Amino acid sequence: MLNYADRLNHGFFKTISQVCTQMNVKAFVIGGFVRDIVLGRPSKDVDVVVLGSGIAVASKVAEALGAGAHAKYFKSFGTAMVRDGDWVIEFVGARRESYRTNSRKPIVENGSLSDDQNRRDFTINALSLSLQSKDFGNLLDPFNGISDIEDKVIRTPLDPDITFSDDPLRMMRAIRFATQLNFTIDKNTFEAIGRNKNRIRIISQERVIDEMNLIVMAKKPSVGFRLLEETGLLGLIFPQFVALKGVEMMNGMAHKDNFYHTLEVLDNLCEKSDNLWLRWSAVLHDIAKPVTKRFEPKIGWTFHGHEFIGAKMVPGIFKQLKLPQNEKLKYVQKMVQLHLRPIVLAQEIVTDSAIRRLLFDAGDDIDDLMMLCDADITSKNEVKVKRYLKNFQLVRQKLKEVEAKDKIRNWQPPVTGEAIMETFGLNPSKIVGDLKSIIREAILDGEIGNNFEEAYAFLLEEGKKKKLHLKNLVNPPVKIIPIPDPIDGTPNQ
Ligand code: CTP
């Protein structure tokens, strides 16, 4: 049996207790902080419910804690937040809430502790600890939240139809907690999600995506996506993902179920990376398979160009899901577009020029791309998997060699647009861009070396072919020769 008083050992808990004695009000720690004590998850976010004014108690507590504490008051919500070092303590008066069917905004009245516990989302989040000096740390667990934690169950304290209808975001939260904590959702609660799923539409997409991102960041996100799909929520939020589901059979040939394949790729990747955007790349890597699917009698099922169409779909999906419209979007697009390239390379004899092109296109994200490709190998055929992984090793080795030799990552061709304009007396125009890309292609193909001299000679040849007049010869860029450090002789950059 846990001694909860020992867990409330930070100084401010005692301060709250003393302030409440002076003010003759009662206060309790409630919600996620108590749950996390039981689960052994460290947390510094504390919710305190006061049988009275949360703001009045918070202001006295901040005063008593002195200079180190900062308080903020949200009068219209009747809440206050006190920061003490890296701890955040939120104060709120105990509430009773009643909801109307067309809105998330409840009618709020003052209530008792049990009113407040009743309006919580799950039994495991309705636990509270007394802050009164006479029973400091005493656990109040009206809905058997402790035994639900022991049994690893997510269950609503009241009739789940009421809890979910009151606040439909809780349907997402149920699935998110089940995924993060590796809990199951109680049958009754689970079925109520299916019944109430359409109410998710009254929740802002910003809040929905916050929960979805928490699912994507869990250790095994497939758990959450399966639950989202089974309850019907996924079809409402992200129908393109559900479209991956299913297997079609033609002339005795079936393709794999791309929904479950994607989830496997995602879980594989999550073992190696906690980059949210690489994880989203895994979610989206095959997103265009349903729209590119064809059956070709001689070959079987094909998904030609799904990487390109998929990359084109990414901005629309990001907008719909309210994911950011910035460089994260560009990164995911790039990953989706390139996700087959290393696999194709691993099937062929790997040429330097193919490697150079891959390095040029992926730039600094090449390691992430290789990680995604590793995760994408989900074949059950061990021989095949071994062969792929061996070839990937070869591709990785080649990537290293070519990069060491040619420095293609974040590479700029050695002859600049300015040099081209100066050489032929040109203004900024299409021909300058064309010449630049001819040089770039020649270097990537290995026709010429990646250095100014060869590239410039090549440019002059190309200029001649295009009948351009030579105006000025341009000097190579000055090389900076490192001066040895006078003390230890190492080069001084
Ligand atoms: N809560 C609720 N319904 C919601 C959101 C929150 O009943 N839609 C209650 C729960 O009792 C929850 C508490 O408010 O424990 C605090 O919510 P929040 O800080 O969002 O979540 P935590 O449970 O602390 O968990 P996490 O920090 O992982 O979100």
Secondary-structure topology with pairs:
Layout: H1 4-7, H2 11-23, E1 27-30, H3 32-39, E2 45-50, H4 54-65, E3 69-74, E4 79-84, E5 87-93, E6 95-98, E7 107-110, H5 113-118, E8 128-130, E9 139-140, H6 145-151, E10 153-154, H7 160-166, H8 169-181, E11 184-185, H9 187-196, H10 205-216, H11 222-231, H12 233-237, H13 239-242, E12 249-250, E13 253-254, H14 258-270, H15 276-284, H16 289-292, E14 294-296, E15 300-302, H17 306-321, H18 327-338, H19 341-347, H20 352-362, H21 366-375, H22 382-406, H23 417-424, H24 430-444, H25 452-465, E16 483-484, E17 491-492
Parallel strand pairs: 2-5, 10-11
Antiparallel strand pairs: 1-2, 1-8, 3-4, 4-5, 6-7, 8-9, 12-13, 14-15, 16-17
Helix pairs in contact: 2-4, 7-9, 8-10, 8-11, 14-15, 14-21, 15-18, 17-18, 19-22, 20-22
The structure holds cytidine-5'-triphosphate (CTP).
Task: Sum this structure up briefly.
The protein contains 25 helices and 17 strands. With 493 residues, it is α+β, with helices and mostly antiparallel strands. It starts with a helix and ends with a strand.
Ligand list: cytidine-5'-triphosphate
Shape: elongated
Q: Approximately how much beta-strand content do the residues carry? A: 5-15%
Arithmetic mean of pLDDT:
90
Relevant terms:
single chain, 493 residues, alpha+beta, Beta Polymerase, domain 2, Hydrophobic Seed Protein, 4 domains, seven-stranded mixed sheet, two-stranded antiparallel ribbon, 25 helices, 17 strands, elongated, binds cytidine-5'-triphosphate
